[in-house]
Automatic annotation (TrEMBL):
<dbReference type="GO" id="GO:0016757">
    <property type="term" value="F:glycosyltransferase activity"/>
</dbReference>
<dbReference type="InterPro" id="IPR001296">
    <property type="entry name" value="Glyco_trans_1"/>
</dbReference>
<dbReference type="Pfam" id="PF13439">
    <property type="entry name" value="Glyco_transf_4"/>
</dbReference>
<feature type="domain" description="Glycosyl transferase family 1">
    <location>
        <begin position="186"/>
        <end position="309"/>
    </location>
</feature>
<dbReference type="InterPro" id="IPR028098">
    <property type="entry name" value="Glyco_trans_4-like_N"/>
</dbReference>
<dbReference type="Pfam" id="PF00534">
    <property type="entry name" value="Glycos_transf_1"/>
</dbReference>
<protein>
    <submittedName>
        <fullName>Glycosyl transferase</fullName>
    </submittedName>
</protein>
<keyword id="KW-0808">Transferase</keyword>
<feature type="domain" description="Glycosyltransferase subfamily 4-like N-terminal">
    <location>
        <begin position="61"/>
        <end position="169"/>
    </location>
</feature>
Length: 362
């Protein structure tokens, strides 16, 4: 039987690591064990991709000739698809305007349509058109949660969106020495005994709630507060709150970005508490990575995050700071092992890889 050729657009690996790269790595590291499928991973820096997906007989790496997204979609991707006689091409959110094989599109979320107040008007107008075009002209539409599936089908009037859930990479489930992680973080970054929130900076991520609670509740007397993430969209509320703080409180707050995987894992393992207060998510990987690492975790109960039933006793209303305080006071620290076991059973990349494999091989 002739092997199936799949082209995987990996241009996001040329940028910052984020949810999309976690998704692609998780699914395709599992899928590359399938000898009946030949994989063509494509980016501007294909050498970087080799460190992600490895080298096997059924893996090929191709190079885009330009970093420009329009050139990539209009010229580069279609050219390579035709040149290598590709059967399926997998894109994230946006597909090329020309079609020379079957297309798979993953639309992780359409939050900008449900929560327009958190997104600039040009972003909303352009992406509504592009995402709809991709949904209408792809052979398979994938997403990462039941919540996103329902919203995509409603907004774009499509059916049969397939859920390929995000999951947690195996390293987060590994056993580790907590005290060693604490000491390594202290030696490298100069802090310990801290609350942690990892996410890129956007108004919908609700950084200001954590800062406000940390200050008004006087938690700075006992803890440090650490934010890790790329600055994407300015959060004016957070900036105003932070700028008004006294120097002694500011000294208890650390804002980091561009942290490599090793140090990110250590920072998570050494945390006293992980907080995820986002108003809206298409999935929300960071809180389940924290649960896998047995870090006490409290999380917003809205949108796709409401599916994380194993965090139920740590759910809070992100619009209500008093509910946040209540969860902190009543949190049960004795259920971390049970939560980890439930998570491992429900979310794993092999499940999502099997779903995608069944679509392209049936």
């Amino acid at each position: 039987m002739k092997p199936i050729k799949i082209f995987v657009d990996c241009h996001k690996f040329d940028e910052d690591l984020q949810g999309i790269t976690t998704y692609l790595k998780g699914i395709y590291v599992e899928m590359t064990f399938k000898k009946n499928i030949v994989f063509y991973f494509v980016s501007y820096y294909p050498e970087k991709l080799k460190t992600v997906f490895g080298e096997k007989e059924n893996i090929h790496y191709l190079k885009y000739t330009s970093k420009n997204k329009y050139y990539r979609l209009i010229f580069d991707a279609p050219r390579l698809i035709k040149l290598y006689n590709i059967d399926y091409a997998h894109f994230q959110y946006v597909i090329p305007p020309f079609k020379f094989c079957k297309y798979i599109i993953t639309i992780h979320d359409v939050l900008f349509l449900d929560f327009p107040e958190y997104f600039p008007l040009p972003y909303r107008l352009i992406n509504k058109f592009l995402f709809r075009f991709g949904a209408k002209n792809s052979n398979f539409i994938l997403t990462v949660s039941d919540y996103s599936k329902e919203r995509i089908e409603k907004h774009f009037e499509v059916k049969d969106v397939v859920v390929t859930p995000n999951a947690v990479n195996s390293v987060f489930f590994d056993e580790y020495d907590k005290e060693k992680a604490v000491q390594e973080v202290y030696q490298k970054f100069g802090f310990q005994n801290y609350w942690l929130f990892t996410s890129r900076w956007e108004p919908r991520k609700n950084h200001e709630l954590v800062l406000k609670a940390f200050v008004e509740g006087s938690f700075y007397q006992d803890y440090n507060l650490v934010f890790i993430g790329k600055k994407a969209i300015l959060n004016k509320k957070f900036k105003e709150l932070f700028d008004d703080l006294s120097p002694n409180i500011k000294n208890k707050i650390y804002i980091l970005e561009n942290i490599d995987d090793y140090n990110m894992l250590n920072l998570l393992r050494a945390a006293r508490l992980f907080i995820y207060p986002s108003f809206a998510e298409g999935f929300g990987i960071p809180p389940i990575e924290a649960i896998a690492s047995k870090i006490p975790t409290i999380c917003s109960n809205t949108t796709a995050m409401s599916d994380f039933v194993f965090i139920k006793d740590g759910f809070f209303n992100p619009y209500d700071i008093n509910d946040f305080y209540k969860i902190l006071e009543n949190f049960n620290y004795n259920t971390l092992e049970d939560k980890k076991a439930q998570l491992k059973k429900q979310y794993h990349w092999n499940k999502s890889a099997s779903i995608l494999e069944s679509l392209i091989t049936k």
